[in-house]
Specification:
The chain is mostly beta strands and about 120 residues long. The protein is about 0% helix and about 50% strand. It is built from no helices and eleven strands. It has strands at about 5, 10, 20-25, 35-40, 45-50, 60, 70-75, 80-85, 90-100, 110-115, 115-120.
């Protein structure tokens, strides 16, 4: 059983940057596609980005494309989300998820979920 743990969230000023990490335990992450979602208070969960098991294929939500970058380090069993030029509307709990098959969007049933890390963008 794979467990996913997110870290790196916190309070950041508008225009700032954060790097979120998703670390796996209980199993290897290299055989899984991994992605990030976010959910703001009172909103539905929103797809952010995903990456294939090899790292060669990535998908991004149109609202985050150009500011966010997903990457992975299979040797460290970790996936990252680099977030730049953060805006107050980026405030949300960010979740990572893993699945055997690469996906795009929010409609797929995924194998594993983390518990989330809170990102707050405010001056």
């Amino acid at each position: 059983q794979v467990q996913l743990v997110e870290s790196g969230g916190g309070l950041v000023q508008p225009g700032g940057s954060l790097r979120l990490s998703c670390a796996a335990s209980g199993g290897v992450l290299s055989g899984y596609a991994v992605g990030w979602f976010r959910q703001a208070l009172g909103n539905e969960r929103e797809f952010v980005a995903s990456i294939g098991w090899s790292g060669d294929t990535t998908y991004y939500s149109t609202s985050m494309k150009g500011r966010f970058t997903i990457s992975r380090d299979n040797g460290k069993n970790t996936v990252h989300l680099q977030m730049n030029s953060l805006k107050p509307e980026d405030t949300a709990v960010y979740y990572c998820a893993a699945n055997r098959v690469l996906w795009y969007g929010t409609g797929s049933r995924l194998d594993y979920w983390g518990k989330g890390t809170l990102v707050t963008v405010s001056s």
